[in-house]
UniProtKB/TrEMBL annotation:
Function: Involved in the recovery of exogenous heme iron. Extracts iron from heme while preserving the protoporphyrin ring intact.
Keyword Heme carried by entry: yes
Record-annotated Dyp-type peroxidase N-terminal domain positions: 11-165
Residue ranges occupied by any Dyp-type peroxidase C-terminal domain in the UniProt entry: 177-359
Record bears the keyword Oxidoreductase: yes
Species per Swiss-Prot/TrEMBL record: Gordonia jinhuaensis
From-to range in the entire protein, with total length: 65 to 436 of 440
Cofactor note: Binds 1 heme b (iron(II)-protoporphyrin IX) group non-covalently per subunit.
UniProt protein name: Deferrochelatase
CC cofactor: heme b
Catalysed reactions listed for this entry: heme b + 2 H(+) = protoporphyrin IX + Fe(2+)
Enzyme class: oxidoreductase
Amino acid sequence: AATEPFYGDHQSGIVTPQQNSMVFAAFDVNDSVITSQLQTMLARWAAAASLLTVGKPVGPVETQPGSPPADTGEAFDLGPHRLTVTVGFGESLFDDRFGLADKKPAALAPLGQLAVDSSIDPTISGGDLCIQACSEDPQVAFHAVRNLARIGRGVVTLRWLQEGFGRASATSTSQVTPRNLMGFKDGTANIKAEDPDIADKWVWVGDESDQEWMKGGSYLVARKIRMHIEAWDSDDIVDQEAIFGRSKDSGAPLSGGSEFTALNFTKKGPDGKPLVERFSHVHLAHPDTNGGVQILRRGYNYTDGIDTRTGTLDAGLFFIAYQKNAHEQFVRIQNNLAQDRLNEYIAPISSSLFAVPPGLTAVGDWYGKTMF
Ligand code: HEM
């Protein structure tokens, strides 16, 4: 069965070729938990994640009568399906509760309210800790989060949880570009695993960090972006393509070529206007319009069923981006996207930033060992 490496310089689940399903959970540490209890739990998470990612249960499924099984069992016969478990720390973890105030990286300062942020729900944003579990099998990802939450019981409580049913990006040149729920190819111009120099430049924290323990880590932005699906579905195809600046069918730039042809922002149509419009999504998100900055996108399509007040689909993109510094990368692009024509059809409803520490070195290492 296919496995992804668990130990290494970086946590898996970032440049790992993006799996098809995700369960993302955020946790808060319970009141009156002391530092040693939190550390023990993080060590137990590391041990459990090392087993889960090779397809093993976190403990016996059949235990002594009188106690519940150590592993909940629903992934018992499934195999790992390239499961990755990626753990992050939220800004709120670095208050006086655990003596971490002087360990807080400057880059973990809250993102604040951005221009498009009029509908952010704090109850599905933030948290002291997060787990991103990705797998080709949705039940394997769910099982991982469920069992880690169970191991954490008494120390942490789930704050919010999001399931993603289909990948909406590509993080490897070996992958076909998937489609988001607007029907467009998503992940064409993304940072890909095959280009480690680009990842070193834009994804992995390096010597510029004020916190030694974050070197080799990354900053994770997660934003649930609801789509106004019914309005989008009634927009005509020419307008849909103009909004993105790419063809819906092939993903090719409207300036010509095929999917991976570079965008040309100066090429004009017969009406004298640029073929890729100035306020199109790809123009405003492109490095050329953002001082060169790039991010690694790793989002998922989600649905939470329907909005019962209106009978409309409750669905969209659970946007995830990894980068060296979210304030200099994600925020810069997002500020430019304040003018995006796509904004008519989307609304961010959650916003979170987590510091993802580097990979675990070997058995015995645990999340945050060099941070405390
Ligand atoms: C490109 C969709 C939100 C950053 C694209 C593309 C699509 C797309 C279809 C073109 C294909 C590709 O190169 O991947 C969406 C949808 C969104 C969304 C449906 C919301 C529901 C965002 C956000 C950001 C972002 C919030 C960052 C703040 C980018 C970047 C590119 C891109 C950097 C590549 C631009 C380039 O270099 O050509 N997006 N996107 N997107 N998007 Fe988004």
